[in-house]
């Protein structure tokens, strides 16, 4: 994977955060440890650190996402950065400017970080390859490819409840095929040494070569959920599905939706996760989503700490003399 | 009114600001006195106080309002808060998320205050009942129900010109039926001891039980305006009117519009108010709106001070140990 | 020109920045020198100065422009101002409020500076004439009239490469007729003593009285570009052209587009400028736009410094006792 090395400098430090694939365990641990120390910031009366004071963070959102954009905006502001949000679809596109010209112009405004969300796989890496070396690029979701900050907040949430990844059984349930969340999470769990990662989905919602990711495949949740520590329910990405891969939402819920009965198959202290926004009654029953084992809202809180950590680390690595950079 | 007590803690201090109804005189005086001291901030070269530094204020606007949103945003920024504006109609609603799930997610981002504008009466209280105890909710207008920060800036403006509420004659003219401004103002004036509150409107624009609010009803402005100290003209809420309650704008102006002739019926030093935006030639003649007795633009200035005061007070009351909270 | 003097105080200092026309050389030099000292700010690790801390800058954009709005927003934030962006077309216009009432309301919120973009010539001056004396108004482009901050960033960029304006030959190529950029730049170059300003365009894209601006007119770029130090290509303002003044984009490129061949006619160290966004293959060939003599992206960087300078100077002049003001 070219991008594996591309997001690192010669010393192997993170310059961008584009994909989990190819990162080392120490990269993930550094993020998790930094997130842990930053998580306390949001509980203090003054929820701000001066880390990015005088830096400019630009949200480049080619795909709408209030939730993700908001958490990045809050993360940047709590690190004292100035934040600029550009909805590209509705701005310079009007005047027929190409993506590269738009990028060149924004970087000429001496911004320090681009947070990129795009419906095409590879968009964030494309941008990282074309920006000036002092700019850090964070992938906030690109097509079906990756959503690495989501994966980091997920493993951060898991670690706060179940610190020993090397003893963990994790089930990921639902639309694996269209889920950049699932892809990134599987990579992160693997790097952290999780021995048992299961994906539970109908064949039509699985990528062809899913086993190559190092997961065990189940199409029956009654078997797949047995004894797991963590259940990650995926959102049914209705807006990304072309054609009729599914009979109906109701049928999906009957076959795969997480109910209290199915949850009972997992370990008694299992946690239930979901990247949000949830479709109640489609992939998850409300009693489970709002129940005592759900950590879905903790994920949102942790998302800010994880993003603050990734912002601090990547921009910190850019602060060295530029001659050192690749 | 359940909400009367709901917005207070056990010591009777303001945790939210949802409605004027049921508040005590000391609550209003505290806001007015704080607003008075904050009003000077905007006249200083550095218009900022560190009061809300490190706090996150979220504008939740389910109903468009540039003016009100802007004054809340400025008030928060002048208190050094970080401000997030979410236009709910155009964001998570796209993905079919329920209001409660949206709220849960925003509060999980560890925000401190929600400023809520909604076209449905009771929306702000509903939200206040469902957010975590550390979050303060301010009602920035809910349906026909209440607009309590507008009422506070109105009585703040009145007090700066006519400090003795217990000797005041106030006339509120126009579409009382659809006006949350009128409802909240009548409550505030009553609590502050105003002995003579008059509403002047055609019967079709009056609520059925309007006298129960403690007001005197006039349908003839020539009689109703006589000798008053304060005239509050209401905006003809065309966008809220269903059906033909009125013959025409022109006819309304002829019968109720504030002209210099009608203004002459009031006390010589009477002040003229309007919550804005004004419909020139519909509820008010331009010569009056722009004339020497108009304090309409002072209301805008005072609105920022009043909102800064309410933000400071409610968040200050939340800053106690959480164990103390209801 | 009434506006010539209108933007100055009695001591001849800039209170607003509406047009280049009628300014003195020392006004421009003060802006250029200030921009030069501010340019370094963006290269520091902490890209912020406290100059406008506690000030409120309002972007009043009646015409969409992500690029210009963004540079003003960044300039204001790097000077520590609070920034409010109002897209007027979509906000209070909804409720039918007049422009003057909107202005009165925003100024009542005790803002310090209005940055105005409007499709009508004279709009910024109109606003400057009607706001309270403590408010500085910057013209961010009004119709075909002026774009003075663009002109200042252009001459700032020229001076960084060719400091001696009194020895300069400058060619401005393209749609002069619809270009507020060209008008303002011609004024600025003239004030700075540029002896040879050329406009190169088909007659249909030239104002009737263009020679009165003190320029030499060429319709043939092969002659007009000969020996120049600076080439300023204008954007083909397709959205501003009514009727068929041009045969086709392709024909325009063949006749006037800046190619490497045409660039070779200029001095060997000539610089190539463009206000952006560029139409590749219409007014400029990509090899030139991205080539070693292009300073197009430097213009973007310099635009922030120039705007920071203009903001600092105009607000600084407002900070005197108000009694001194006109």
Helix content of chain A: 25-40%
| Class inferred from helices and paired strands of chain A | alpha/beta
Shape of chain A: globular
- The parts of chain A where pLDDT drops under 50 for at least 5 residues are 321-326
Q: Biggest β-sheet of chain A: count, sense, barrel?
A: 5 strands, parallel
What Rg of chain A is obtained from the alpha carbons, in whole angstroms?
Answer: 20 Å
CATH superfamily of the largest domain in chain A: Aspartate/ornithine carbamoyltransferase
How many individual domains of chain A? 2
Molecular structure report:
The structure is a homotrimer of 326-residue chains. Chain A is an alpha/beta fold and 326 residues long. Chain A has 2 domains: 2-147 and 302-324, Rossmann fold (3-Layer(aba) Sandwich); 148-295, Rossmann fold. Chain A is 37% helix and 14% strand. Chain A has helices at 2-6, 25-39, 66-78, 99-108, 123-130, 148-161, 180-191, 221-224, 249-256, 260-263, 286-289, 296-318, and strands at 56-61, 82-87, 113-118, 136-142, 169-173, 196-200, 216-218, 230-233, 271-273. Chain A has a 5-stranded parallel sheet with strand order 7-6-5-8-9. In chain A, helix 3 (66-78) links the parallel strand 1 and strand 2 (82-87). In chain A, 56% of the residues are buried. Chains in contact: A-B, A-C, B-C. The A-B interface holds A 42-48, 64, 66-67, 70-71, 73-74, 77-78, 239, 276-280, 297-298, 300-301, 304 and B 53-56, 82, 84, 86, 91-92, 94-98, 101, 104-106, 108-110, 319.
């Amino acid at each position: 994977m070219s991008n594996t090395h591309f997001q690192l400098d010669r010393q192997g430090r993170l310059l961008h955060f584009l994909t989990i694939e190819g990162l080392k365990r120490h990269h993930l641990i550094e993020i998790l440890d930094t997130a842990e120390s930053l998580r306390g910031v949001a509980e203090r009366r003054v929820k701000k650190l001066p880390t990015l004071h005088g830096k400019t963070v630009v949200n480049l959102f080619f795909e709408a996402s209030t939730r993700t954009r908001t958490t990045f905006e809050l993360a940047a502001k709590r690190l004292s950065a100035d934040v600029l949000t550009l909805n590209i679809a509705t701005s310079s596109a009007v005047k027929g400017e190409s993506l590269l010209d738009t990028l060149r112009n924004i970087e000429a405004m001496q911004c320090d970080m681009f947070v990129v969300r795009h419906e095409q796989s590879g968009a964030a890496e494309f941008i990282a390859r074309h920006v000036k070396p002092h700019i850090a690029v964070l992938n906030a979701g690109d097509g079906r490819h990756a959503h690495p900050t989501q994966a980091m907040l997920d493993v951060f949430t898991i670690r706060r409840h179940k610190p020993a990844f090397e003893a963990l059984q994790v089930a990921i349930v639902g639309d694996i095929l269209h889920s950049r969340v699932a892809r990134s999470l599987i990579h992160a769990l693997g790097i952290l040494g999780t021995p048992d990662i299961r994906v539970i989905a109908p064949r039509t919602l699985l990528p062809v070569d899913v086993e190559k990711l190092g997961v065990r495949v189940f199409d029956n949740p009654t078997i797949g959920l047995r004894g797991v520590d963590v259940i990650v329910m995926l959102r049914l990405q209705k807006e990304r599905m072309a054609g009729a891969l599914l009979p109906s939402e109701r049928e999906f819920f009957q076959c795969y939706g997480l109910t209290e009965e199915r949850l009972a198959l997992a370990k008694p202290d299992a946690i239930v996760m979901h990247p949000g926004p949830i479709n109640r009654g489609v992939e998850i029953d409300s009693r489970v989503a709002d129940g005592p084992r759900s950590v879905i809202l903790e994920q949102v809180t942790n998302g800010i700490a994880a993003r603050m950590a990734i912002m601090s680390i990547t921009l910190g690595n850019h602060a060295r003399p530029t001659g050192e950079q690749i």
